[in-house]
Amino acid sequence: MAKTSSTTKTMQPVSPRSEPVQTRSIKRTQQILEVTSELLETVGLNDLNTAIIAKEVGISVGSLYHYFPNKHAILYAMGKTWLDSIEEVLKEIQEWDLEAMSLPVFIDQVVDTNLRTYRQQRAVLRLVQAMFSVPELRELDERHDDMVISQMAKVFKRIGLNKHIRERERIARHYLEVTHSSYLVVVNQNDRRASRTLADLKLMLGCLLEHHLNTPE
Q1: What pLDDT does 181 receive?
Q2: Which residues of the chain have pLDDT under 70?
Q3: pLDDT at 214
Q4: Which of 58, 106, 125, 177 is 20 to 30 A from 99 via CA?
Q5: What is the distance between the alpha carbons of residues 18 and 10, in angstroms, rounded to a whole number?
Q6: 3-class DSSP state for residue 170?
Q7: CA angle, 73 as apex, 71 and 79 as ends, to 5°?
Q8: How many CB atoms within 10 Å of residue 107?
Q9: Is 25 within a domain?
């Protein structure tokens, strides 16, 4: 049996110390998440630590540890909250009358609806980068991709893309990579450039989906 390398980094726990139930604890937890979002945007991931977070919240580091054991646990909570908002959007899309929608209307709505969740999450680019690069958060990145791909594969079938599930999942992954990266660019652009980028995104999606809608399986 191979020995575990002594250089292997131990994964930090990402579960909160306890689930807040009292109003004061809930507010404090939310404050910690909001302050961390602001700091993630201003100081970046590498310089972010619990001492800075505690100072900005106005509590001691010891008090902060009553809520979260480390900075990765705070980032995990932020990422999970953002994933919950993505899940809500996907549920909302499933409730649309997809079968009756024209392709341009569908693309307009699906892009605009998803973009709202990216705009609402402060420092979303840095958060997503953390979800991809920090081992403790990688599960969130994988969960995000799997969720979007599986749900959009169902959506594509309802708009008339009658292909095998594996092929729809392949197209959904392509859709994910194109939209996800574009949203992360748009949220950091001024209004004029963002409008042009979104127009390009919608054009690309239109070409992709129209091609597969008109191509037999």
Answers
A1: 97
A2: 1-9, 16-21, 216-217
A3: 86
A4: 177
A5: 22
A6: helix
A7: 105
A8: 21
A9: no
Output the pLDDT for position 154: 97
Amino acid at 75: L
Q: pTM to 2 decimals?
A: 0.88
Task: Specify the number of domains making up the chain.
Answer: 1
- Its domain, for residue 117, covers 75-213
User: What are the φ and ψ backbone dihedral angles of 162, each rounded to 5 degrees?
Assistant: -90, 75
Residue 93 lies in a domain: yes
Task: Sort 158 into a burial class: Cβ within 10 Å, 0-12 / 13-18 / 19+.
Answer: middle
Give Cβ neighbours of residue 37 (< 8 Å, ≥ 6 apart). Answer: 78, 121, 122, 123, 127
**Helix (H) / strand (E) containing 203:** helix 191-213
- Our measurement of the distance from residue 110's CA atom to the centroid of its chain's CA atoms, rounded to an integer in Å, reads 15
User: Which residues does 147 contact at the CB level (< 8 Å), separation at least 6?
Assistant: 83, 86, 87, 90
